[in-house]
């Protein structure tokens, strides 16, 4: 089949990979000038297979007043009717039972994604600053430790190998923690988690696909419309013409709704803005990736660089000045915690901001639609890099099943 994938982020390129392995003639089209230049560009880099917790939870509900009144530096919120409606849907998924169920569901997908990532690396041998780093989530306070213990018990029943370490035990594994301004009370340690540069992955995999399969990439062209005939998709319209297609897969992240709405489809995707700064590694840069849970950011070591990424803003508008201010905030908070982790004074600070495509139940939308031949693979929220391989493979299976039926 001729399959058009809209979006060359990590999700779109991974989807193109599995579709190409199935023998389809795949065309990937993106409005950006190259692959991985949307939300995948400079994300946290964590392949966070063991930390799959849903956003909605009783802890989130307790933190809500602080978030709504902007008392949490790591999360700024501009309330709007649309956000409030979406927030109500999120609250419906925030009971303990729902939150545990959804976190386990993501964990199951993440485990599969890990297996697929290893197979993909073996098959393609692509470079993307991949590192088998392990991950530590620093937590403080008896409540947070008790809560972490419960979640770990739940996931470990399904084969997860997370453990809780004291700050000292964690520092034996990751000596850079000794150079933090304070040792954390405790760390959730996931030895099997990894890091990699998502943009490099998208770029290297698209090169591999171009050289080894019939997949082709079109950049700098925005899909303005999806054409149908007799209830079946038949083309994606771009300024230079029509891309004739037997199937179309929308992997357009936060841009997915704009494409689908004219066909009467509306996804519950809301953008949650985050930021990153990439700096040269400091004298005591951690090798293990570290998440500072209470401050909502991560340190990831990508080759000789350190990426500091995080924060969670629900905003209506955001300009360059605001991004500058938020990345300054990120640097200040990170520096206070880990003064020697990065060269904070470096002239070359790569500042970036991207918008996570969030869903109220923290599950990506991977499905066929009421329009024959039209598929969706979007809404991966905080974990699109982690879930890209499993999502791409699942979507390719749906296309295959659609073709067979
Ligand atoms: C600060 C931050 C840190 C993060 N850290 C992590 C992390 O450590 N681990 C993790 O797993 N995830 C992380 N994430 C989440 C992850 O980056 C996203 O879930 C993921 O990038 C989503 O990928 P995507 O391919 O769906 O979207 P994108 O990368 O945004 O790709 C969508 C593409 O579609 C294209 N597009 C949209 N509309 C059109 C159109 N009409 N025509 C043509 N092209 C179109 C866009 O140009 C874009 O390139 C983080 C996100 C942020 C913001």
CATH class of the largest domain: Alpha Beta
Radius of gyration: 21 Å
**Judging from the principal axes of the Cα atoms, what is the shape?**
globular
Bound molecules: flavin-adenine dinucleotide
For the largest beta-sheet, the strand count, sense and barrel status come to: 8 strands, mixed
Reported by name, the CATH topology of the largest domain is D-Amino Acid Oxidase, Chain A, domain 2
Share of residues in strands: 15-25%
Number of helical elements? 10
CATH architecture of the largest domain: 2-Layer Sandwich
The topology string of helices and strands comes to: EHEEHHHEHEHEEHEEEEEHEEEEHEEEH
Provide the structure class.
alpha/beta
Binned, the helix content reads 25-40%
Number of strands: 19
> How are the strands ordered across the major sheet?
5-6-4-14-15-16-13-17
**Which regions are unreliable across 5 or more consecutive residues at pLDDT < 50?**
none
Average pLDDT, rounded to a whole number, is 95
Distance between the termini: 14 Å
CATH-assigned homologous superfamily of the largest domain = D-Amino Acid Oxidase, subunit A, domain 2
